[in-house]
Design brief:
By secondary structure, the protein is α/β, with parallel strands linked by helices. The chain contains six helices and ten strands. Helix content is about 25%, strand content about 25%. The strands form two sheets. The protein has an eight-stranded mixed β-sheet, with helices on both faces. A two-stranded antiparallel sheet has the order 5-6. It is globular.
Length: about 240
Amino acid sequence: MEIRGPLELPAQREDIELETVDGLTLVGELAVPESAAPVATLVTLHPLPTAGGFMDSHILRKAAARLPALADLAVLRFNTRGTSSQRGTSEGAFDGGAAEQFDVAAAMRFVRDRGLPRPWLVGWSFGTELALKYGREHDIEGVILLSPPLHRATPAEVEAWADSDRAVIVLVPELDDYLRPAEARERFAAIPHAHLIAVEGGKHLWVGEAQTRRVLTEIVAAVNPAALPLPTEWSGEG
């Protein structure tokens, strides 16, 4: 069968809870390969909750649905404080990216406690702001930034990554609503090792199967390139 849309490939999926240092419980899900140990871990940070972003935002949901089976990756998704999805509602209230630093820390503590390997932060839109602002505090291999608006991450917070040995992968849609490739190259020039990928025809929300496959391919290219090319057909049990 063709791999597209909401198709969910086999994986071990577990509803989880994250506990923050300021006393909140956040809800989420961990998906890991069905029968093999994961080779790396994606800790996903969703788009702006006040604009409809949550752990089920489609790129993150499809990463969890496909990449444990296709690329041997563990995928952690969770709702930041005050955010709701089918999984439930995380306690607390949206704080504009400030107290959300504790949410990121709770996710990374979960990864450490579970012994999940080679964590990467994968942020989308608002999630890229959290990755840039707080990712350097944690033991990660790198950040993958999807449609970064650079509204909340300051120039100093971006430039701070220049002194880090963590990978910085930036996917910028050609037709983004907030930050397009030419400006993005200027804004990320402060990080000499940043790898900026301009995606032709892409838009902020990465709508359509072609854009989904491009984003997931670039994620896997950074984290587990041996799994490429990602198949477009699934012959196993679904």
